[in-house]
């Protein structure tokens, strides 16, 4: 009997993952927009987010969460963090109690400071916690959809579930590793978007590679400090979910968060940038929650704080790098500080 997988959310990343899953299972993609759903099923393309990418013929789409989730053996949540809870709540009656749930969202819920797997556990209170996990890594959606060689990490506490998802997601061009460190993988994914905004700002201001390399490296130290304080494994942050994702998001012109940062560095107003951006840049919404989480943990995050000041306090982007350069002199590695 074939596996049925429901992918909830037809943005660029949700669509790319649905195309991957469709090579190994009976995949159904949920889309809000009936035009998108019809195009995926009938024309095998997503005209809104991946118009030039041919999707598998066997992938179908629906606007019904009940249709997508009823009888699904796996549910993949590809909804951005700010809409994640509401959509999951609507889908909840149709999700089986022991169905593995995979989050694709790289953010922190603003009101609660919960990671997305924690949101799942909150909404589906009777669900097995060790069957709630995350797919993360240096995975730019357009490159994945174009079948460029890519590696990723699927993290679940339950090893058998992780292996099940590894086989479901693995293709000739999409290599998947398992990791039991759900906390570390999620925190790395959320915070790298914040650091990418900073790296983009530096690029927009005209700084060179030395500056951007310093921001990326010190940004890695920040996300590791926060992740370890929350129980993450230090090794996670040197792997695909940490360093790998950070490098891709901070350096690629395909990165949404870096793109927003570049525009900020060039002097454009955040409201104008967001208004013309069709796809969600998670860092814009999650920076505030990440900073609140760091304050709660007593963790110092100077790069993230400077990014937050630009996003929410009207700080001049040109002030970021001088403010970081003039901080108190410290050793590099002691205590990851």
Describe the structure using short key phrases.
single chain, 337 residues, alpha/beta, Rossmann fold, N-(1-d-carboxylethyl)-l-norvaline Dehydrogenase, domain 2, 2 domains, eight-stranded mixed sheet, 49% helix, globular
* Total E-strand runs: 8
Q: Give the neighbour order of strands across the main sheet.
A: 3-2-1-4-5-6-7-8
Major β-sheet, in short? 8 strands, mixed
Give the tally of structural domains. 2
Poorly predicted spans: none
H/E order of the elements? EHEHEHEHEHEHEHEHHHHHHHH
Helix count, DSSP H or I runs of 4 or more residues = 15
- Structural class label: alpha/beta
CATH topology value of the largest domain = Rossmann fold
What Rg is obtained from the alpha carbons, in whole angstroms?
A: 19 Å
Strand content: 5-15%
CATH architecture label name of the largest domain:
3-Layer(aba) Sandwich
The CATH fourth-level homologous superfamily of the largest domain:
NAD(P)-binding Rossmann-like Domain
**Mean pLDDT, rounded to whole units?**
94
Layout of helices and strands:
Layout lengths: L3 E5 L3 H10 L4 E5 L3 H9 L17 E3 L2 H5 L4 E4 L3 H11 L9 E3 L12 H8 L8 E5 L4 H5 L4 E6 L3 H11 L4 E6 L2 H23 L4 H21 L10 H12 L4 H10 L4 H6 L6 H16 L4 H12 L6 H6 L12
Parallel strand pairs: 1-2, 1-4, 2-3, 4-5, 5-6, 7-8
Antiparallel strand pairs: 6-7
Helix pairs in contact: 4-5, 8-9, 8-10, 8-11, 8-13, 8-14, 9-10, 13-14
Write structural notes for this entry.
Helices cover 49% and strands 11% of the residues. It is α/β, with parallel strands linked by helices. The chain has two domains: 4-180, Rossmann fold, CATH 3.40.50.720; 190-336, N-(1-d-carboxylethyl)-l-norvaline Dehydrogenase, domain 2. It has an eight-stranded mixed sheet with strand order 3-2-1-4-5-6-7-8, sandwiched between helices. Helix 7 (159-169) links the parallel strand 7 (150-155) and strand 8 (174-179). Helix 8 packs parallel to helix 10 (240-251), helix 8 runs parallel beside helix 11 and helix 8 crosses helix 13. The mean pLDDT is 94.
């Amino acid at each position: 009997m074939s596996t049925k997988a429901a992918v909830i959310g037809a943005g660029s990343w949700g669509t790319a993952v649905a195309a991957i899953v469709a090579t190994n299972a009976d995949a159904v993609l949920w889309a809000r927009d009936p035009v998108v759903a019809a195009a995926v099923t009938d024309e095998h393309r997503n005209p809104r987010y991946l118009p030039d990418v041919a999707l598998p013929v066997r992938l179908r789409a629906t606007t019904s969460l009940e249709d997508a989730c009823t009888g699904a053996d796996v549910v993949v949540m590809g909804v951005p963090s700010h809409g994640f809870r509401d959509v999951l709540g609507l889908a909840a009656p149709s999700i089986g109690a022991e169905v593995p749930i995979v989050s694709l969202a790289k953010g922190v819920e603003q009101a609660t400071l919960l990671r997305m797997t924690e949101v799942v556990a909150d909404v589906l209170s009777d669900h097995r916690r060790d069957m709630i996990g995350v797919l993360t890594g240096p995975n730019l959606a357009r490159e994945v959809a174009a079948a460029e060689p890519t590696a990723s990490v699927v993290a679940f506490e339950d090893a058998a579930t992780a292996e099940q998802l590894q086989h479901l997601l693995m293709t000739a061009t999409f290599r998947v590793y398992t990791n039991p460190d759900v906390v570390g993988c999620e925190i790395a994914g959320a915070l790298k978007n914040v650091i990418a905004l900073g790296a983009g700002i530096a690029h927009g201001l005209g700084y060179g590679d030395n500056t951007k390399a310093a921001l990326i490296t010190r940004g890695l130290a920040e996300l590791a400090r926060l992740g370890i304080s929350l129980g993450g494994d230090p090794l996670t942050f040197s792997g695909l979910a940490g360093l790998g994702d950070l490098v891709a998001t901070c350096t690629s012109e395909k990165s949404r968060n870096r793109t927003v940062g570049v525009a900020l560095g060039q002097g454009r107003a955040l409201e104008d940038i967001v208004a013309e951006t069709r796809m969600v840049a998670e860092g814009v919404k999650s920076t505030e929650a990440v900073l609140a989480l760091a304050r709660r943990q007593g963790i110092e995050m100077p790069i993230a704080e400077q990014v937050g000041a630009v996003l929410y306090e009207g700080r001049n982007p040109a002030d970021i790098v001088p403010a970081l350069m003039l901080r108190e002199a410290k050793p590099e590695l002691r205590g990851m500080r």
